[in-house]
Design brief:
10 helices; about 325 residues
Length: about 325
């Protein structure tokens, strides 16, 4: 029996390149559902399915209404995202050679999807309360941390004999600060959305409680704080870009910083336009999507900095191993 299982596992073995594809698909799917979730909110379809886990009190399905289909479609997409997450986890056991770091990282993906589905259910049951809606988005950003880590490691093999830790400790500390500032900026952005006009219930005629800890001045206050943090984040990113060039940072790190600076510039333009036009739904959706992309680029900068010495492309490692003489 044990021999049969070994033979079956060998037949199902996945190469490092194939597993890297599993990790990339999971990353794309878990990013995509952030965008569709934001679309549910800005179209006012958050209560298109007014209960959970069913769509209505009497049915698992939605009525054929625009907002019901939008919310129900987002719920259905969760199943495909779950399949991608589970696929990355199962494939980690079939990858040859097996790497325990990929197994543990991939486990976080299906766990994150389950937690996100449950939190989404509570968000609906509590009528899109601001705290639940903010937590729903922030949990997505945490899941993306695991996705980026898995994708980055899956595309690279640990280099034998490489020195531990980043090559440039000053840059490493600065990038840690960038990640923290980025996280706080995103949190402030969720607060701005929670205080804004897009509560998620406009399409179905539901009255949703808004974030109002400063009364009528709440929206203006949180937008101003978010704008200040975003400006500081942009300046920090540009400063790191110059620092990386001056200190001869690795090409991957500099590319990541360049993309981050461009995304922050685009985000600044979009944010200014949406504020001037009094927060139209379409531009708010673009702003939320860019926020997710910006977070991904910050994580890319972090990965490129933290592993500057510790890893090399998987194909290069395998090729070197194949070229080595047998002993």
């Amino acid at each position: 029996m044990k021999d049969r299982l070994t033979v079956l596992k060998d037949r199902l073995a996945i190469s490092p390149e194939r597993y890297a594809l599993f990790a990339r698909v999971a990353l794309v799917m878990l990013t995509l559902i952030v965008l569709t979730g934001a679309a549910v909110r800005v179209t006012g379809s958050g209560l298109g399915c007014p209960t959970w886990p069913r769509c209505t009190d009497t049915s698992l399905y939605t009525k054929l209404t625009t907002h019901g289909v939008i919310e129900f479609g987002n719920r259905m997409l969760t199943f495909f995202v779950g399949f991608a997450a589970i696929g990355a986890f199962v494939a980690a056991f079939l990858r040859k050679p097996l790497r325990r770091d990929l197994v543990w990282l991939s486990l976080l993906l299906p766990l994150g999807v389950v937690c996100q589905a449950v939190l989404g259910g509570f968000t609906v049951l509590y009528d899109l309360a601001p705290g639940f809606v903010m937590s729903h988005y922030l949990l997505s950003m945490l899941i993306l941390v695991a996705c980026v880590a898995l994708d980055w490691r899956a595309h690279r093999e640990p280099a034998a004999g490489a020195a531990a830790g980043p090559a440039d400790r000053l840059m490493a500390r600065a990038v840690w600060g960038l990640v923290g500032l980025g996280a706080v900026t995103i949190f402030a952005g969720t607060a701005a959305t929670a205080a804004g006009p897009h509560a998620g219930g406009a399409g179905t005629g539901d009255v949703i409680k808004r974030l109002d800890f400063k009364g009528a001045e709440t929206l203006r206050f949180v937008i101003e704080q978010h704008a200040r943090l975003a400006t500081l984040l942009g300046l920090a990113a540009v400063g790191l870009w110059f620092l990386a060039r001056r200190r001869g940072g690795p090409p991957e790190q500099r590319r990541a910083l360049t993309v981050l600076c461009l995304l922050l510039a685009a985000q600044g333009v979009v944010g200014g336009v949406q504020y001037a036009l009094e927060l139209p739904a379409e531009i708010v959706w673009v702003h939320v999507g860019l926020a997710a992309s910006t977070w991904l680029s910050i994580l890319w900068v972090f990965a490129a900095t933290a592993t500057a010495r510790a890893a090399q492309p998987a194909a290069a490692v395998r090729g070197a191993g194949e070229a080595a003489p047998a002993r």
